[in-house]
TrEMBL record, chain A:
Superkingdom of the source species: Bacteria
Topology of this chain in the membrane: Multi-pass membrane protein
UniProt-recorded name of the protein: ABC transporter permease
Organism of provenance: Sulfitobacter porphyrae
Residues that span the membrane, as ranges: 19-41, 53-72, 79-98, 104-127, 134-153, 173-196, 228-246, 258-275, 282-299, 305-324
């Protein structure tokens, strides 16, 4: 199928299973879901699942590039919470001046994009120029953003002013032709990400840097610039995800975006991107995100499984999805 | 030399309790950090109480420490004992087990110990226990549900983070609706989180064609539930019952929102009760040892104004 054609030529045996693994897992989940509950394939449920996947999905596309280039970002969940808080504060502060309406929504969006870009830049700067381990830098910024949003919210919840909420609500709940905006934005981000990864020089450079940065450097790839850009893109995408998130409940709190970073990383790895870098697959990441949301959805739609075990079932399916795509020779 | 100073300090700590203070006494307050709405309110009320009492009692000094996990809270308490020479400790334990022995060490040093909300694993360590009433919280919620649905009906239940607190509440609730004709269609963990309960409610709405009411059991979860109901456009759900007493929800009750006809309190300000009582014990001869249970109260349109705190973040 088309999937196998995009596989790089250096992949050897077990190609089919490796590529098809996540798709198989997704198909099995859809069949199980449909068998367990008649409403599973209803338009409303599909819209719900896809829309709620959008936040993690948009972030995970950016994470695919970071991981492909040999990096990691643990700060995205906290960053999303902080940007959401900032966006709400800015809109509330500007409300008396500008009044409720679309211009104010654009101010909010601009805030989120600028904050995301800056946050990504800070991570990238510390990792590339200051040469600190990505794990340590983003573990640090994770704590910083989480504390900042707690501090901004005074430990409570930051809520968008009521007058503004009805204006901004359609960004999450409305759309074109019955397809809601988060789904459209997620699709656009995923398609652009796939094109950049496959067709643009940047995608190849990211893979080269992740595979062997010394060789990449001798091949006149600007390693630091590529690494920096992956973090900045991820920051921008966290901003985009936040723009989709804030309209949903119109609030941000210290519990916003908790563990999003791990869900995004899990989705990337389920999708076939290598955690140690060097190879990335954006469409796989999309499948990974859908698998994670579907597990939750199916567990909510069925009885018989104790909710205490949700995490265990999720863990088993994640590991199975990754086992399916392991090359037998890779054991050595 | 060293020996005598330590003995002197220990003697001072044990003997200083009822005697008129010749020097300032230090009260340590150790609480979990503001990681969710309720804890945020609790932090606010703790800070308010400390500010107020420092003015009222010049002879008292307060050390307030917030911890983001049990290990940090243990360190906080050990530091207070070692470096601040506290005469009393007010602690809201993150978890019962890991905090039991460090708090016991404080009690063994002769200091007064007040435990708030979550009990320690071994009873009898604390001098004063200020507790919320979790089974009572569930019971009041269940009784309201039963009275609001005299003909019974189908409800869905949202649970918090899996803990003893959550179990006690749900058991209290189930006991109170027994025989009322109310049928629980499903229970799922919303983790006291708006986003989680939003998605769980979306899925409940897909799963069941008719839901008469929702016991969200928490105001944060109720907000997520309300957003999901609004999105679905369904009108079979008659009302949502939250809990805790978040000011936005109390305002809805006060203003007569038909979807939020009532709320049940589990006040984060109980930390203030604990700090105040401890200060009274430190500065007067009034006895304050024992257990102080703060009941859960039903908030309706009639009394909502009394439970609305303008400045509180929760």
């Amino acid at each position: 199928m088309t999937a196998t054609e995009t596989q790089p030529s250096r992949a050897t045996r077990g190609v089919n299973l490796k590529v098809l693994g996540p798709i198989l897992a997704l198909v099995v989940l859809v069949i199980v879901g449909a068998a367990l509950n008649g409403n599973f394939l209803s338009a409303a449920n599909i819209t719900n699942v896809l829309s709620r996947s959008a936040f993690i999905g948009i972030i995970a596309v950016g994470m695919t590039f970071v991981i492909t280039a040999g990096g990691l970002d643990l700060s995205v969940g906290s960053m999303a919470a902080f940007i959401a808080g900032l966006m709400i504060l800015v809109m509330n502060a500007m409300l008396p001046v500008m009044g409720p309406g679309w211009p104010l929504v654009f101010v909010g969006m601009l805030t989120a994009m600028v904050a995301g870009t800056l946050a990504g830049f800070v991570n990238g700067f510390l990792i590339t120029t200051m040469r600190i381990e990505a794990f340590i830098v983003t573990l640090g910024t994770m704590g910083i953003y989480r504390s900042l949003v707690t501090w901004l919210a005074d430990g409570g919840t930051l809520s968008l002013d009521f007058g503004m909420r009805s204006v901004i609500r359609p960004i999450y709940f409305d759309g074109i032709l019955g397809i809601s905006w988060p789904i459209i934005v997620f699709a656009l981000v995923a398609i652009s990400g796939e094109l950049v990864m496959r067709r643009a020089a940047f995608g190849r450079h990211a893979a080269a840097v992740g595979s062997n940065d010394q060789v990449a450097r001798y091949s006149s790839v600007n390693v630091n610039r590529v690494r920096m850009l992956t973090y900045v893109f991820l920051g921008i995408l966290v901003g985009v995800a936040t723009i989709m998130y804030v309209p949903r409940l119109g609030s941000a709190s210290p519990s916003t975006g908790v563990l999003w970073e791990l869900e995004a990383i899990a989705a990337v790895i389920i999708g076939g991107t290598m955690l140690k870098g060097g190879f990335g697959r954006v469409w796989g990441t999309v499948i990974g995100v859908l698998i994670l949301s579907l597990i939750d959805n199916i567990l909510n739609l069925t009885d018989g499984v104790s909710p205490y075990l949700n995490g265990a079932i999720q863990g088993v399916i994640i590991i199975l999805a990754v086992i399916l795509q392991r090359d037998k020779k890779a054991e050595s | 030399m060293k020996f005598t100073t330590i003995t002197a300090a220990a003697l001072a700590a044990t003997l200083a309790l009822p005697v008129q203070a010749q020097d300032t006494k230090v009260i340590g307050v150790s609480i979990p950090a503001a990681t969710h709405g309720w804890a945020g309110g609790m932090n606010f009320h703790a800070q308010q109480a400390v500010n107020r009492l420092e003015e009222v009692y010049p002879q008292l000094d307060f050390v307030l420490a917030t911890a983001s996990d049990p290990a940090k809270q243990v360190n906080d308490i050990e530091d207070m004992l070692a470096t601040r020479n506290i005469s009393a400790l007010v602690v809201l334990p993150f978890e019962s087990e890991p905090l039991t022995s460090p708090v016991k060490a404080v009690a063994d040093s002769g200091a007064w110990v007040t435990v708030v909300d979550r009990g320690l694993a071994i009873p009898g360590i604390e001098d004063l226990y200020v507790a919320g009433d979790n089974p009572g919280f569930g019971k009041v919620s269940g009784e309201y549900m039963a009275s609001a649905m005299p003909d019974g009906g189908d409800i869905v239940v949202f649970r918090g983070i899996p803990t003893t607190i959550d179990n006690e509440r749900v058991e209290g609730f189930q006991g109170a609706i027994e025989g009322s004709g109310i049928n629980i269609l499903a229970m799922e963990h919303g983790n006291w989180n708006r986003d989680d309960s939003f998605t769980v409610m979306q899925d409940f709405l897909s799963k069941y064609d008719k839901i008469d009411a929702v016991w969200a059991s928490d105001d944060d979860m109720a907000i997520g539930v309300l957003a999901a109901i609004e999105q679905s456009g369904r009108d079979d759900i008659k009302f949502v019952l939250g809990g805790a007493g978040m000011k936005e929800m109390v305002a809805k009750v006060r203003d007569g929102d038909p979807m939020i006809p009532a709320d049940v309190t589990y006040p984060p300000s109980m930390i203030a009760t604990a700090i105040e009582l401890t200060a009274v014990g430190m500065t007067s001869t009034a006895p304050v040892s024992g257990t102080f249970t703060i009941g859960s109260v039903l908030i309706t349109k009639d009394n909502a104004a009394d439970f609305y705190y303008e400045d509180s973040p929760f």
